[in-house]
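Long-time lurker, first post. I've been practising inverse folding by hand and with some scripts of my own, and I keep getting stuck on stretches where the structure tokens seem ambiguous. Below is the full token string for one chain I'm working on. Before anyone asks, I'm not after the true native sequence, just a reasonable design that respects the backbone. If someone could post their per-position residues I'd love to compare against what I wrote down in my notebook.
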């Protein structure tokens, strides 16, 4: 109960500050009330340990070492089976699902979950492989790919890009493990509704290993943190940066402008999330390809238009990954931390969140969806984040802003002003393609909207695990979620980054403990599926 006490006292303190600041504008009052809690939470989750004289957050050490272990243990599944993953998404191996000998939904009899869990072989999930991937990608490919890449480079310089990409490649293996477990230990109701994610593989999987009490404890902790993460990184941060882009582009003013924009986002999101995962999947499978083509197309145009200096930008990424500029605080360790931290927020590998969406897939083979899941960090970090980084580095060749000189999430520009997050990326796009800031605004809003939709589902699943599966439970969570959509648009970038970063990274602790105990189960599922795939290829 300690975690509830701390949350309660911190939020109460924040509420009191808001109430006592009645003379200030609405957005400013909300921000002043929220900031103390954000600072406290960030310090708690990002506690550091000293390694070779440098302070490195413990959560990042756990994340990277875990990802490295899974990569080695599964024989570089992230590289060797990348083509197989593409084929699974394309539906090449869908025939395997039709074999009656394997169409058996597992009924788990631990934790009293047998009631309401179906035995009907016709119900294997709610969405197809592509829809599951689209929903999960829409939850990861968000404004972290646009805004936080700019933050990472502003603080850590071009070298942060190298560590982001490395973390993305290693994270593919972690995502494979958690998505496989998500399908293996999911529950499916009699009406075909899926309940899955770390909450279930922590409680059920660890009970199978004789660690039932630990599993239940970790599942509850994860669910609580997942609800918080859905309010923060999956919601408030998205509406914050969408509002910042709109306000900056149109020069809007007013003490409640951010709140009004947040309210519009909340109404639009509310219309979709009321319909559940099937409606969310239908929206994201249309929005994700469109926003990807829109954003990636613009980024590639800029890169090719400056192809003569791209080699110089890439050279900076590699050289400054190990020998950063003197202005970069923390030197080599500081650059590495920025890259790993932003990659973790961006692709969420190790956080376990995407396993919730992947659990809803219609498949009889857990490892098939694990392979689909490993595509996420590649799309999210290796492709999209790298493109954003290269565009920003190309833009800053003439030193428009100073690497390392960042205050409250904002970098120092040559004219003495400060700019941060999505607005730096917008400036970079506008510098190369006049008028593209309006295109970026559309992309930003789509990125934010799709991420909000996906995270509403993640948070709802965690909420249901904690409080039950009734209609009132659903409605209560969705209303709270939409309140944070409004709040997020009203607070500053610095406050929302502190809260959002820490909330998503906090998920790593309970989730990675479970993954490091349950990975042999993944090995068994992987061997079974790959054997069938190999036979299919040889036919």
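-- Answer (accepted) --
I ran through it position by position. Result:
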């Amino acid at each position: 109960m300690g975690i509830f006490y701390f949350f309660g006292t911190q939020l109460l303190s924040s509420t009191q500050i808001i109430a006592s600041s009645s003379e200030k504008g609405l957005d400013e009052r909300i921000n002043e009330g929220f900031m103390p809690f954000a600072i406290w939470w960030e310090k708690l989750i990002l506690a550091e340990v000293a390694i070779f004289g440098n302070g490195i957050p413990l959560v990042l050490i756990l994340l990277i070492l875990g990802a490295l272990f899974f990569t080695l243990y599964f024989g570089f599944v992230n590289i060797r089976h990348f083509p197989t993953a593409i084929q699974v998404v394309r539906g090449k191996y869908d025939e395997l699902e039709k074999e009656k000998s394997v169409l058996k939904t597992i009924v788990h009899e631990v934790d009293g979950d047998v009631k309401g869990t179906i035995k009907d072989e016709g119900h294997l999930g709610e969405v197809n492989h592509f829809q599951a991937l689209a929903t999960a990608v829409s939850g990861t490919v968000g404004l972290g790919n646009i805004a936080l890449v700019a933050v990472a480079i502003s603080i850590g310089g071009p070298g942060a890009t190298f560590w982001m990409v490395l973390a993305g490649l290693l994270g593919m293996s972690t995502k494979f493990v958690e998505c496989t477990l998500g399908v293996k230990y999911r529950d499916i109701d009699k009406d075909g509704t899926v309940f899955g994610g770390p909450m279930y593989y922590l409680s059920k999987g660890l009970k199978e290993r004789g660690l039932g009490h630990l599993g239940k404890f970790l599942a509850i902790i994860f669910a609580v943190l997942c609800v918080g993460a859905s309010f923060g990184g999956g919601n408030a941060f998205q509406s914050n940066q969408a509002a910042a882009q709109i306000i900056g582009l149109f020069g809007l003013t007013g003490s409640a402008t951010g709140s009004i924009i947040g309210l519009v986002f909340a109404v639009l999101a509310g219309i979709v999330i009321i319909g559940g995962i099937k409606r969310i999947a239908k929206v994201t499978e249309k929005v994700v390809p469109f926003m990807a083509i829109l954003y990636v197309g613009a980024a590639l145009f800029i890169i090719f238009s400056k192809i003569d200096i791209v080699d110089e930008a890439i050279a900076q990424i590699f050289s400054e990954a190990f020998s950063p500029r003197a202005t970069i605080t923390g030197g080599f360790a500081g650059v590495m931390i920025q890259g790993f931290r932003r990659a973790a927020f961006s692709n969420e590998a190790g956080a376990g969140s995407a396993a919730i969406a992947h659990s809803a897939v219609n498949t009889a083979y857990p490892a098939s969806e694990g392979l689909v899941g490993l595509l996420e960090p590649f799309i999210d970090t290796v492709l999209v984040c790298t493109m954003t980084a290269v565009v920003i580095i190309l833009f800053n060749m003439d030193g428009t802003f100073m690497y390392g000189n960042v205050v409250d999430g904002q970098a120092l520009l040559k004219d003495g002003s400060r700019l941060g997050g999505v607005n730096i990326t917008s400036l970079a796009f506008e510098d190369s393609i006049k008028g593209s800031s309006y295109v970026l605004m559309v992309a930003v809003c789509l990125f934010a909207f799709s991420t909000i939709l996906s995270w509403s589902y993640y948070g709802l699943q965690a909420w249901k695990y904690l409080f039950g599966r009734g209609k009132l439970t659903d409605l209560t969570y969705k209303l709270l979620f939409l309140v944070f959509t409004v709040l997020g648009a009203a607070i500053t970038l610095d406050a929302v980054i502190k809260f959002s970063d820490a909330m998503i990274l906090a998920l790593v602790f309970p989730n990675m403990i479970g993954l490091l105990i349950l990975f042999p189960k993944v090995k068994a599922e992987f061997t079974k599926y790959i054997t069938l795939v190999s036979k299919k290829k040889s036919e």
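A couple of notes from the structure itself: Residues 46-538 form a domain with the Amino acid/polyamine transporter I fold (CATH 1.20.1740). The longest helix spans residues 212-250. Happy to go over any region you disagree with.
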